[in-house]
């Protein structure tokens, strides 16, 4: 996938997001369990690196800092990022679908299964620490052409190194994969950042989202999204696991806390939607999280079981409001959390693996036909109860499209492939997810 990825499609059928950004990669095999839920384990001490030679935290503030307007400034580099086109013409849609048909017809079952996964560069390559993209990345993508990669702090060392990493990864992906790569990061602002607030990265920093929500100023939320989107685009990313659309209805909730914009559903929607718009206007695909709403839960899914006791009607009055509005607004990507909702499903199955919640509520009741990505499948709520293969198959059966960070990528991949080959997952079901993912990716090239 070479130097530039252009544009992300609105999967729910509303339009095309321009996505600019050079893509590239480098990896470290470590104990990261943050996924897109914010917390990150310290990277493992690492030594092995890819064969290519490498190119050569301050407290958060509420307002944007201007940064160094030098050549190395990501904000300046992203200054020419295209804004999002809110709608695609029927002719564009038709051409995209025709192209997608041709690509899917030429893909093997193995390639299609690989498209369902977003993994760390370490999980893809087996390299202990990845900060560059070279032969190991190429060989790994030739074997398992995954849907995308997610990067953590250990992968991101200096501005120049990050740009080189994403640029080379994107180029290799374009050369060996049927579809472009998602190059993603978890950059909410506040306490959840992989780049912001780090020494050497001269980018804007922000206070927590609760403080921003307290201002009740959608313009400030847009400023957050636009600023983050600008530097992410400049560093070659094309997807951000943000905004947090959780409504904090349980004051004892610790996992979300001040990552939420507030306890009022309409305020949360207003602020989250403006962060998303700011990201899109800088060419970055937003992901609304954590369906069906982590703000009412007890427990932390990073460590183990977490649940909400609310009924569906109660959730529809509060926690589901931002997600329902996102669907109405044509947003294209939503993250399913590992939250059990026994008052809705009658059991303790996490939402990320629940057909009743993903298909029954999100897709059928709310009408969402975009991409559903799971929260990180290596988190305690999943890993303590399911094998990697069981979780991956269950997520696809539930209606998810992208499987984020299984604890054992190879085992998860082999399990889904076996499920397709034995008919547990039909080929039509596999194609449905690959088509949703592919529709988004092909729109990058259509701008």
Automatic annotation (TrEMBL):
SUPFAM superfamilies the record matches: (Trans)glycosidases
Record keywords, A-Z: Glycosidase, Hydrolase
InterPro entries from the UniProt entry: GH, Glyco_hydro_3_AS, Glyco_hydro_3_N, Glyco_hydro_3_N_sf, NagZ_Beta-hexosaminidase
Region described as Disordered: spans on this chain: 31-94
Pfam families: Glyco_hydro_3
Gene3D superfamilies: Glycoside hydrolase, family 3, N-terminal domain (3.20.20.300)
PROSITE patterns noted in UniProt: GLYCOSYL_HYDROL_F3
Annotated Glycoside hydrolase family 3 N-terminal domain residues: 108-439
Gene Ontology terms for molecular function: beta-N-acetylhexosaminidase activity
Keyword Kinase attached: no
GO process annotations (BP): carbohydrate metabolic process; peptidoglycan turnover
Composition skew (Low complexity), residue ranges: 77-91
EC assignment: 3.2.1.52
Signal peptide (UniProt feature, chain positions): none
Chemical reaction(s) catalysed: Hydrolysis of terminal non-reducing N-acetyl-D-hexosamine residues in N-acetyl-beta-D-hexosaminides
PANTHER family to which the protein is assigned, alphabetical: BETA-HEXOSAMINIDASE, BETA-HEXOSAMINIDASE-RELATED
Protein family (similarity comment): Belongs to the glycosyl hydrolase 3 family.
Protein name, entry field: beta-N-acetylhexosaminidase
Organism from which the protein derives: [Clostridium] asparagiforme DSM 15981
